[in-house]
């Protein structure tokens, strides 16, 4: 993948906050880079400490199905609550930077995908709050003040990303929790000199902005639960390899999200371009984490063992209630895109 270069830079353009009229256009400008850590050379991928079907710590299939049902409910709620700007700060260069930041700190897949979720939610809400403050509190020169706010947000963006990675590392109960001194040293590589107190205040700012509602499930959670269930039902499946490949495909989708879903749209509609109303309707697809996850598992299964694909897709359809045709459509898109990487 293109993201496997020796250096990476912060995003150059995150688009606009679509639900805000007029001047509410936020661009992230900058050209900072940091070296990736030395390692195997693999871009992202699965953590080495993932255990499936563990004899001591593993849970029963019944508990897993209950957990999956709960995640399905949460997924449906997220779909019903989605809004046009959701995901602006979640994909593309933002995702790449967060992924590689977590790679630098040697954090798990769950941490980096949770950090992406937190960063997108925080930036959307933070931007909206600042914009509304200018609209309601500033009488004159609103554009000028909004421009000043944009510049300040740009300067703080690496700090905010670091805070989201730090919070995510704490939420996973992982032994590699990021501490303030690590963030301070990390940011100093960009010539950004923050005190440990400033780093602490940034973490608190993220938590308060999100109203401390940070225990959301990432796509990796759903992926691992479904794989655990499949491990009970298909003991010959190499679940760990499926996990590794599924995560790598997920990385590709997040890095090239717009392209992936545009290809899916063209496949299911036969049309080349979205109308505005179609784009709004398609939000329920682009924000459906469970749909993404089952298509990733199906694609990974096809790569490992083509003969098992049909029965795995059939089972994925049964446990998630996602139509088989939809799973197949997105699976085909993944496989076509992988063949071009």
Structural notes for this entry:
The chain is mostly helical and 341 residues long. The chain contains 14 helices and two strands, in the order ββαααααααααααααα. It has helices spanning 61-80, 93-104, 109-137, 142-171, 180-188, 196-209, 219-233, 239-255, 257-269, 276-281, 283-286, 289-304, 309-320, 324-338; strands spanning 7-9, 33-35. It has a two-stranded antiparallel ribbon. The longest helix is centred in the middle third of the chain and has 30 residues, at 142-171. The chain is globular and about 65 Å long. It starts with 6 loop residues before the first strand and ends with a helix.
Structural topology:
Elements: E1 7-9, E2 33-35, H1 61-80, H2 93-104, H3 109-137, H4 142-171, H5 180-188, H6 196-209, H7 219-233, H8 239-255, H9 257-269, H10 276-281, H11 283-286, H12 289-304, H13 309-320, H14 324-338
Antiparallel strand pairs: 1-2
Pfam families: Cyclin_N
Protein name: Cyclin N-terminal domain-containing protein
Domain Cyclin N-terminal: 95-214
